[in-house]
């Protein structure tokens, strides 16, 4: 997601002026560090949901103080504990069950807040737009898991490769497409059901970035310009 920072995420934050930003999926912190710098200068708190951060948490806590809140939990455990936020960035477990339920939790929080947040989602295109990936398959209910294997994938091929390929070290669904399979499928299912009036935006580079925005949000006045001029 960090590849979208300069041309999309940062301009959106400047226009939206969020008080609380939630990032799901930080890992090495490439996008997190940018969010924290933004928050420090613009008086926004960053809540980072990452069960296994690969950066010096104590050092960041010293630098950013209350501007950083780290939750070492899976997203579906952490999100119900966060009472309000203005922007939600989802780049964690790339599968239908997780993404769909992350959005449903955002919807429940929005009911209490009275407004739906801006939500940005990474990996809405290949390889995981239409294919589930599981870091820890046991964390997903068995009935919600696609048949999967520790094998790599290749663009243009639905079947997994016998050797090599993209992301061969994680559990990938055996096939692309079909019901309840992939990040984009989860978003479409959620959007079709949600009682909120929402707009959907899509960028196709860097594995895809999607954005869900309430249809009455003030940022809509500049969002088309931000996306059209991003070149992404």
UniProtKB/TrEMBL annotation:
One of its GO terms (biological process) is methylation. GO terms for molecular function: methyltransferase activity. SUPFAM superfamilies: S-adenosyl-L-methionine-dependent methyltransferases. Keywords: Methyltransferase, Transferase. Gene3D superfamilies: Vaccinia Virus protein VP39 (3.40.50.150). This is Class I SAM-dependent methyltransferase. It comes from Paenibacillus hemerocallicola. The lineage of its organism: Bacteria, Bacillati, Bacillota, Bacilli, Bacillales.
